[in-house]
């Protein structure tokens, strides 16, 4: 595969394909395993992810890239094959989460800034050697209207860190996934859809201004934003058509056409809604960038449940993963239909 940043980014948003976010840190995967009563051991984490990466049809046809956690990029499958090799053989690009998590922002109670810039140049060089050709950094912005959140300081600090991360990635020959997530399921999550629109627009404008300041080549990034949705606890929820329309409007107003692709996070949406929203946007007509998925929960939930930590359930779990990957692959082309969900 070509090593040019532009080509890697194009491959990550190839038509009808999207990214599997399997970069849960050890604490997050524990929460997922707790739901299925499975112990959070290194072997179980390996077995679960090996099950996903060996889902041949899903990986070959619908998954363009996989975001890994530091432990996973170093792990070998039960037969000794490096997990990175399984991903490559399936024709997908291996990627790596390089942020060190969202930490409290000093002086701004309730807000966080994502850390991990110290030593990042050296870590990226090692990840490149281990096979990563893209990376991910997630900034987290919470809306809490009663507390006046988010602050402009929080948005600015996170956008600056995202841009410094992106510049370091490109220097290392690695495509940065730039992920500023406005939470839909934060501590209060009672905001309406218009507030999500305003905060997302503000955040994306700030992020692209910082990317410009840091001389980041937009053709060599993938943006991973939230969709425009009301908070999970908002009294009025939005119709899928409204989510699609406002998300497109917000992205058109903020994301330059030089960006090759936008791969959404699912953020706590149900599996099917995350698919429907993506489908409606792609069905709306021609767009300046590719629009696809980079889902964690919305791609994995059904497979995780079907697996339940038991080797005898691997085939059922792979079938569940294939179904969601296929539905989202269709949505990325605007060709999904509700009837296919039950087919
Ligand atoms: C897979 O989850 C990632 C976060 O893991 P940690 O919280 O343990 O760092 C997360 O960044 C994910 O890649 C994105 O938020 C998209 O996942 P969802 O589940 O929102 O689609």
How would you describe this structure to a colleague?
This protein is an alpha/beta fold. The chain has one domain (5-342): Alpha-Beta Barrel (TIM Barrel), CATH 3.20.20. The chain contains 14 helices and ten strands. The chain has helices at 5-12, 26-35, 42-53, 56-62, 70-73, 83-89, 120-129, 152-171, 193-213, 240-254, 271-283, 297-307, 314-331, 339-342, and strands at residues 18-21, 63-68, 93-97, 102-104, 112-114, 134-141, 175-182, 222-223, 261-264, 290-295. Strands 1-2-3-6-7-8-9-10 form an eight-stranded parallel β-barrel, surrounded by eight helices. It has a two-stranded antiparallel ribbon with strand order 4-5. The longest helix has 21 residues, at 193-213. The two termini are 35 Å apart. Residues 21, 23-25, 28, 67, 138, 181, 265-267, 295-298 line the site of 2-O-methyl-1,6-di-O-phosphono-D-mannitol. One of its GO terms (molecular function) is fructose-bisphosphate aldolase activity.
């Amino acid at each position: 595969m070509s090593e040019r940043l532009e080509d890697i980014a194009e491959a990550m948003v190839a038509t009808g394909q999207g990214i599997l976010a399997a970069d849960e840190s050890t604490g997050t995967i524990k929460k997922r395993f707790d739901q299925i009563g499975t112990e959070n051991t290194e072997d179980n984490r390996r077995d679960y992810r090996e099950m996903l990466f060996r889902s041949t049809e899903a990986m070959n046809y619908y998954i363009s890239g996989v975001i890994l956690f530091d432990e996973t990029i170093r792990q070998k499958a039960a037969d000794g094959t490096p997990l990175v090799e399984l991903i490559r053989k399936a024709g997908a690009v291996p990627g790596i989460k390089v942020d060190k998590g969202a930490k409290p922002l000093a002086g701004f109670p309730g807000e966080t800034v994502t850390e991990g810039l110290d030593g990042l140049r050296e870590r990226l060089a090692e990840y490149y050697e281990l096979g990563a050709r893209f990376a991910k950094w997630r900034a987290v912005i919470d809306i809490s209207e009663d507390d006046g959140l988010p602050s402009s300081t929080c948005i600015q600090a996170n956008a600056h860190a995202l841009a410094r991360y992106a510049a370091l990635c490109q220097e290392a020959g690695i495509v940065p996934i730039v992920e500023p997530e406005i939470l839909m399921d934060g501590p209060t999550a009672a905001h309406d859809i218009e507030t999500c629109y305003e905060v997302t627009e503000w955040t994306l404008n700030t992020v692209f201004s910082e990317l410009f300041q840091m001389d980041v080549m937009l053709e060599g990034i993938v943006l991973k934003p939230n969709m425009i949705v009301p908070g999970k606890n908002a009294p009025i929820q939005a119709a899928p058509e409204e989510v699609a329309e406002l998300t497109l409007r917000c992205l058109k107003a903020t994301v330059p056409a030089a960006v090759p692709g936008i791969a959404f996070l699912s953020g706590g949406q149900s599996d099917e809604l995350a698919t429907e929203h993506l489908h409606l946007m792609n069905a709306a007509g021609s767009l300046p960038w590719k629009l696809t998925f980079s889902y964690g929960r919305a791609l994995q939930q059904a497979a995780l449940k079907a697996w339940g930590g038991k080797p005898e359930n691997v085939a059922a779990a792979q079938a569940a993963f294939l179904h969601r990957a296929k539905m989202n692959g269709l949505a990325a082309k605007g060709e999904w239909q509700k009837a296919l969900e039950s087919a």
